[in-house]
Design goal:
The chain is 68% helix and 0% strand. The chain has 204 residues and is an all-alpha fold. The protein is elongated, with a radius of gyration of 18 Å.
């Protein structure tokens, strides 16, 4: 997930926590944010940032709680909704994750990570038709969405549509040659484990 921008105006504590995370000291970052939350500093931004860092650490239950708390105050917060869906998927609550993702996509229909994860959930649940429709719509709206082509190719491969799968793979690699480093013949973008949907906060 794209790294969120520091809140504006950002508190010194939040900036220190973000710096600690970028330097690899997640325990320090979480401790700083916990103090900020307990003191009322930073509001939802501090809780969201803590949840994102906890997700990056694999502490998905705690991340889910922070995401839910943010959404209770800010229903339309797309970053919090994505964090919640990621945590739900990571802890095996795939139906809840799908519900959260569908709601998120109503507000943010071009949210690429949400599209990919929802399609992955559909495909893993035997709903290939829904996955294909989701990727078809995403590609129609965003023709440069390389990972959607790649994921759609994975669904077609599972359905034994090898010609369609190969065509989608070629398009994906043309749009994003870096995908070649991840392709191992099994459409790994689609086959990534739902138990590790990825960090919601990338280090630089």
């Amino acid at each position: 997930m794209n790294q969120p921008n520091p809140p504006a105006p950002a508190s010194a504590t939040l900036l220190h926590a973000l710096t600690a995370h970028r330097e690899g000291d997640d325990l320090k970052a979480v401790a700083l944010l916990t103090v900020a939350i307990q003191s009322g500093e930073g509001g939802s931004a501090a809780r969201l940032l803590r949840g994102q860092i906890l997700g990056a650490m694999g502490q998905w239950r705690e991340a889910e709680a922070d995401a839910a708390a943010v959404l209770a105050d800010e229903k339309g917060n797309a970053d919090a909704a994505w964090l919640l869906a990621s945590a739900q998927a990571a802890t095996g609550a795939t139906q809840a994750a799908a519900d959260t993702l569908r709601s998120l996509l109503l507000d943010a229909p071009r949210h690429r990570p949400a599209i990919l994860l929802l399609g992955r959930i559909y495909a893993a649940g035997g709903q290939a038709d829904k996955a294909l429709r989701l990727f078809d719509e995403a590609i129609a709206a965003q023709p440069d969405f390389a990972k959607a082509y790649h994921a759609r190719g994975g669904v077609k491969h599972r359905l034994h549509d090898e010609a369609g799968a190969a065509e989608d793979l070629r398009t994906a690699l043309r749009l994003d040659p870096a995908l070649a480093r991840r392709f191992d013949g099994s459409y790994s973008l689609l086959d990534d484990s739902l138990k590790a949907p990825g960090s919601c906060l990338n280090r630089r």
